[in-house]
Specification:
Layout lengths: L19 H15 L3 H10 L10 E5 L5 H9 L4 E6 L2 H16 L8 E5 L5 H4 L6 E7 L7 H14 E12 L5 H20 L5 H12 L2 H9 L12 H11 L2 E9 L2 E7 L2
Parallel strand pairs: 1-2, 1-4, 2-3, 4-5
Antiparallel strand pairs: 5-7, 6-7
Helix pairs in contact: 1-4, 2-3
Bound molecules: S-adenosylmethionine.
Length: 270
């Protein structure tokens, strides 16, 4: 997606008429500059399990941001009902606006996404969803958690799935060998830099522009209130993920796609 050609300058977007679609597209472009084959990973999450296309699936998207994976899920499964969870009130607001716009533009034929503000580390909201989901998905979010909280999250995902349900996590997954991981990191940075050199904005650039455009200091103050980064840019080692998922009770644990330290890991609750 090339937003560079028709970018509206930040000052020219009055906050009352914020163009959420424009900012969603900028989010997508920014994330895609960091993550090789980002959309391919999303598609795989919904192609690999053998669900019928018209199935009324219940799907949970962890660390949903503005709903990138959620909206991809709806393209594959238009009748799905999706619970999209994130701690960030600003990204959730964007997700809600996009979902409403899709409905009004009749891209979606019903309101089938609930965006919920919650901390993944908080056990309380998980209790409402025991055995609730056919599919739990997450992209580029779980590496924000410490190893302990990730282990706990994997255990909660297992409880939240129906028997036969699938879990897919597309994220940074480190090599088990630190020397190899250092190479991965270097090669990924070079690839990312080449993208930024074409003019795509980075994380800080996106947030600077977006904050100015939204112009709601209270909303942005809220996202500063919770300190939820506690992870690592490399993610946890591959062996950690595989072992932990198996310990939680998952079967069919497998890496379905990998590019250097980026991977899609899948697991099933038998
Ligand atoms: C890089 S963004 C990815 C968003 C989206 N999945 C995507 O692929 O575009 C990571 C997201 O994880 C969320 N996140 C990180 N730690 C979290 C936590 N403990 N609870 C809830 N959300 C969290 C952040 O707020 C952020 O929206």
């Amino acid at each position: 997606m090339n937003e560079k050609t028709n970018c509206i300058s930040v000052q020219s977007v009055p906050s009352v008429e914020l163009n959420w679609q424009h900012w969603f597209a900028r989010w997508e472009a920014m994330q895609s500059a960091y993550l090789p084959q980002r959309e391919h990973r999303f598609d795989l999450m919904f192609c690999l399990p053998e669900f019928l296309q018209d199935a009324k699936l219940r799907i949970l998207d962890l660390g949903c941001g503005p709903g990138s994976v959620t909206f991809c899920a709806l393209q594959h499964y238009p009748n799905a009902h999706i619970i999209a969870v994130d701690a960030d009130p600003v990204l959730l607001e964007m997700g809600r606006e996009i979902e409403l716009a899709n409905y009004e533009l009749q891209i979606a034929n019903r309101r089938n996404v609930e965006f919920i503000q919650a901390d993944l580390r908080d056990g309380n909201w998980w209790e409402d969803y025991e055995g609730a989901f056919d599919l739990v998905v997450s992209a580029t979010a779980l590496h924000w958690l410490s190893a302990g909280h990730l282990r706990e999250t994997y255990r909660r995902v297992y409880c939240a799935l129906k028997p036969g349900g699938w879990f897919f996590n597309a994220d940074h997954i480190a090599s088990d060998d630190p020397v190899t991981q250092a190479h991965y990191r270097q090669l990924l940075r070079e690839w990312q830099q080449a993208n930024f050199d074409t003019g795509v904005e980075d994380w800080d650039g996106f947030w600077q522009g977006f904050e100015a455009a939204v112009n709601q200091p209270e909303l942005f103050a809220q996202r500063e209130e919770v300190e939820y980064w506690e992870g690592s840019d490399d993610g946890n080692p591959k062996l950690f993920h595989i072992t932990t998922l198996r310990e939680c009770g998952f079967t069919d644990v497998a890496i379905h796609w990998q590019d250097l330290g980026e991977a899609l890991i899948g697991a099933r609750k038998s």
